[in-house]
Amino acid sequence: MGRSRLVRAGSAIAAGLLAAAALSAPASAAGGGTIQGTFTSAADAPIANAGVVAWSADQEWLTSTVTDAAGRYRLDEVTAGGVRLQFDDQGRVQWAPGARHSEAAALHSLAEGGTLTVDERQLATGTLQGRFAEASGAGAQAEVTVVGNDPGVSSRQSVSTDAAGAWSVEALPGSYKVSFRWGSSEQWAVRQTSDTDAKAVTVTAGRTTSLDEQKLATGTAGGRITDAAGAPLTGAYVSLSRDDMPVGSAFTADDGSYSFGEVLPGTDYTVSFSVNGGARQYVPGATVRERAQRFTIVAGRLTTIDDRLLEVATMSGRLAGTDGSSPLAGYHVMVELAGSGSPTYTTTGDDGRWRLSGVYPGDYRVAFISPDYQREQYAYGQGSPAGADLITVAPGASVTVDDTWVPGATLVVKAVDAATGAPVKNICVWVFAPRDGRGCSDSSQVTVENQPAGEFPVSVSPAGGSNYLPEYHRRVRLVPGKTTTVTVPLTQGGTVAITTIARATGAAVRDTCFLLKQIGDGSLGDSYGACSDAAGKSITQAIAAGTYELFAIAPTGYGHQWVGSRSGTGDQRAAARIVVKAGRTVTAPKVLLDPPGTITGVVSDATGKPLPGAEVAYSAETGGVTSWSTETDAQGRYRINKLGPYGWPLLFSSAGHPREWSGHQGNRFQAKLVPVVAGGNTTYNFRTAIPARLRGTVTVPSAPRATWRIHAKNAVTGDEMASFDSSSADDGGGYSMPLIGGQRVRISWSFYGDSVPWTEGWHDNATDFGSATRVNIPAYGSRRADLVLR
């Protein structure tokens, strides 16, 4: 079973509880043991109400609790195996024994049915204190938040200033940044508007560090909201946002007035309001955020922002049963303004009728959802939003939307062997329709009832341990009141048997997990499985026949590696080729784990200025920091741990700069390999190159207002080297992406809209990576590519 890795542990017990809901249960959760102990301060005093979280060897949330008044804790039914413990004392987070981040924590071995005692002593703290003052020198009121700044460390503590503006926090040793929030303003020490530019301060155990801050100059913003007739609108909730992120709020008074108080100067502020939790209106008189006015706040001035509530309408209707007359009670009604993403809900009464008042003018879709939430239908009689009518609502109008609940469709799926036609038993089926339908059977046939009408993707998945491969997104058309039967051929894949030992001792190594990848896919992903047992043995899930390379995610004390024929490597090209055959289990080369080393350095821009917040990775992942990457601190410093002692390519990414591999390459296979030393550290500093650019226009003929995204992928490795989406395009659909020059790329794209389903493809009219047009990127300057997405 694949496992989802947690990249960074939360700074409070709530993070562990959220992770419990978000992550799937561990594969080995059939039984467990008990972990108990006490948590005390550096002075040996008990710490009460501290969060204690147990994490597995591969950083999977297991369970959590809080300490009692005596500092005692107990965790029951903890999954047996390697366990790391996290302790959270009001935002002061450490890992047993006395470590600031998870990779430095001890991996405790918990036996099935056993009891493990782990007492933890909090690291000695230091004091971070200061004073927040007005420009005049008088004390200022604010909420002060102290945020951990060391890579891999999660810590967040908040206090309020006293009447004199003084504040103080007891913090664990490390690097921190400090923010001050009051009214609708937030600034970061020293006198900065973002955490990126904030000063990092160091807290030392047993010492006091002072950080005084003076309030930045501010303006104010406020105004008056009236109803459609011009009378004061009382009790409306008014929200102030900047760059579409909320920064302040207020309620209107009896005269309709409101004030956000002090606001930092700047552009791109928007204001919206709602009444009694209803639909949101954007100033001036807009129903969607894209049409909101952008305001500029000026220091020392009041920006007046007035608005009038749009003349609202009423929507109502009746939902009848499949006979066309009997009322359907208790059905949920969802009314959504097209393009808003903010639906409003009500429920049908005993007579099947429903009503919504206070509806803004615009074009709407109306959906009806069954009381058990198993099926939804769009007016009129449609199974998905794509077929729904757009219902125009005029100011002051009363619009009626009656509908009849259509009979549910039935899908019967029969699974057969793709080669022989023989039935394949033990399958599950998913229907990717609104409210997803699903069903499982120990036979070769699954029936899924009460589905909406329309064409939907269907996936068929065999039981765990089977050599058959899942069949994804087979499109099936479902008809109301009818049964649709489809036969889905399943192809056999193969599995890989793996043995893992320590190179130095020959001893078996447990909790090593694996990924099978192919040349042309440098992304490791963020889930994996096939973890080794106590004997160092594991077998992968079935995978399609083909040639693969094996990546080993090592447990504590060892370094990650691509598995070679006789040793590990950091270069995917040098990894052993494993030929997977249908219906068979093949044996991988023995995995020989070595001690880990680290790579550290400083990332700077082309002028030599350090780049905070840059990502450094040894995988071609995108979308933020992952398990295979880290982020530079305020001084541009980075640290990557747990790499095997081999040469590794590193990928550097930062906003406004090109993604590039070490040695300033777009092709990973031409990257400079950074050598890692077992038990040691290698320094590799990196200065970003001046980029070339890929620019042009994007046109979607079938949906001119569609939301789209394009990706530039290296033509050799398939690594994503740049991306761009429609929210950043100009009015003509223009785009411009920085790229490291001297490479070839292939461009993939996707789009969706109110009236069109998710669609994806490759430039130019290609169906896959291999057939896509290669676009040459010059060493310097720009290349134009106008894209038509069909």
Automatic annotation (TrEMBL):
Protein name as catalogued: alpha-amylase
Cleaved signal peptide residues: 1-29
EC number, as in UniProt: 3.2.1.1
UniProt keyword annotation of Signal present: yes
UniProt-listed Pfam families: CarboxypepD_reg (PF13620)
Organism: Actinoplanes lutulentus
Keyword field: Carboxypeptidase, Hydrolase, Protease, Signal
Catalytic activity: Endohydrolysis of (1->4)-alpha-D-glucosidic linkages in polysaccharides containing three or more (1->4)-alpha-linked D-glucose units
GO process terms (BP): carbohydrate metabolic process
Catalytic EC class: hydrolase
The keyword Protease is assigned to this record: yes
